[in-house]
């Protein structure tokens, strides 16, 4: 009987998802959140969420294990067979407010995957699981409970359908580690009245400990039950249940007890906030007080469809559409809201700040959490600039809030606390890229000064601002290899010295271009000089980047494929190509023929290991590969042939990476268990599948898009009046079969196009780019005039 009701409920939900208006395609059907969940990060799997939402709900299979170093894969894995709870918050270094429905005797710890009977976790079957943008459902076999999740922007909904039971329970697991949350410092849960539970949890994430020692992350909730419990008990994990309606301290869990008949339903609305219980309540009342669970599923699904419909693709394979819209989903899921409906937000110092309100009483902009911006300029920010500029603008304003509050930009922030992640800081490129893309609804001069300080400032620089070795770069023009601090960065140098030199050269260029646009000529000249710092590490005998020690000599026993010695999450073979600000100079120094032969052979070799780590399930499995698509330092390299006279090789290799590195299974999604990093690898696929990329990441004063090999017959991008004049930009292909990688000829708005690039502002005018494709390269098309890089 339960199984029949379970099946019938699926048909109801299919009906809900089919309610999109005729003008809005039902694109959520192409999104599979379970792709790539084998060895995925805590923030990766949150199906029940809005785009860029604060409330991000999903099942946890091992989130209660915690996270020793703050980055390891934990949370949900496609191959796991039991669930330990349904947390409401999933962000980089943030996790908590987990609920779990159970029946029978209450066990006082979550248990382990290999022994679920010794904990309150429950087994489940994949056939009984549904995961789509905005909705998640699963049948908990051990308890015969159906659990469903959905969310508004700041309110999580959990709905449980119970069996006939004298002992049905809902656990509020608030006081224990969840994913990347770090150790719990304090927690509180209280049954305020017969149908209201409120509380908080305060955690100390590992990256907060490293980059802002002494700071904490606080999460608050205000939950409304649609059914009053028969009784209430409380307990600390691994302790005894006692009667009570309040509990405080690490380990705190509350147990709501019910007597249920078959198919009795309990629904919980959970208002969430990073500032206070009162604001969590306000968030619930403003967004969801009168909404039912099904109404929220429909509304959130419609929001996802509207957001996904900004880029429409047709033709291509079914797998390519699934990869495309799942990648777009991840690009729009990560880096979620941190402020309340009333504009309150968590400040860096632990107090509550206030975003100014507009005439409608809403915040002038939103505030967001974010993993590091490292590499995001090659995927996320160009995609945001293209179709989601209003979010990009808010993201910039969000970063500037932290700068105004604490004095430095933060490459990664968790409730405004510094969580740099990689010890560098590339936010300057994101800020300059927004301005250069016509996204300017922020305090431009403050933004510029923040970026300038990020590039040149070292006095009083705090650990959380990253780049603690920037003094060396500014004074020497490069960062020396100095490994007295294991895997560390400090005022005298870094064990990642070469990669930092290359990155700081690039970000100096980005701010130089912004300085030029704003008329800051002195800054422009100084920063452009610094942007050439990479040349100081170029070994002319090897035609490669090679770290130098403080005395000036190149490091000895040099192995171009060795990672972590001068190079962060990469090696010299990969990082030698990290000169996005001046590819023509790099090509000149290497020699064009050697450059092309070396680069082509690198991809030929890397293809044997699926362009990275092969089938080894590990975030760092490709670090010693000549090319590693599973990590940020390599993501622009396949596009460099556009600058070296062989754009047909960019067309070939980017198409093959899309087809072979990316997959549609739990294990083979983004490589094999490699790190998708809050939408970065998904966004790369989206851009490459459209045949658009920007090696400079928007840093040029007049940015360009370089062309690759689109996977679809037609791509329609809906432009935004915030930064565009036209309404749509359309890419059409002819003869585009799976093996027809190569552009034979092109027209832009009916006129022949002989170059493999266009200016971004040309795209923002709207129009049609038409590409004739073939299975043999046209070695002449686009070869004569490389993409322009502003000087």
Look up the CATH topology of the domain at 28-308: Beta-galactosidase, Chain A, domain 5
Overall shape? globular
Mean pLDDT: 96
* Strand line-up across the major sheet: 7-8-9-10-19-14-13-12-17
Give the class-level CATH name of the domain at 28-308: Mainly Beta
Q: How large, in whole angstroms, is the Cα Rg?
A: 26 Å
First CA to last CA: what distance?
71 Å
CATH architect. name of the domain at 28-308: Distorted Sandwich
| SS content category | alpha+beta
The number of helices is: 18
State the low-pLDDT regions, or none.
1-22
> Would you report the number of β strands?
38
Helix content: 25-40%
Provide structural commentary.
Keywords: Calcium. Residues 279-774 form the Glycosyl hydrolase family domain. One of its GO terms (molecular function) is peptide-N4-(N-acetyl-beta-glucosaminyl)asparagine amidase activity. One of its GO terms (biological process) is carbohydrate metabolic process. This protein is α+β, with helices and mostly antiparallel strands and 791 residues long. The chain has a domain at 28-308: Beta-galactosidase, Chain A, domain 5 (Distorted Sandwich), CATH 2.70.98.10. The chain has 18 helices and 38 strands. A 9-stranded antiparallel sheet has the order 7-8-9-10-19-14-13-12-17. Strands 4-5-11-18-15-16 form a 6-stranded antiparallel sheet, with no helix packed on it. A 6-stranded mixed sheet has the order 20-33-34-38-35-36, covered by helices on one side. The chain is globular and about 75 Å long.
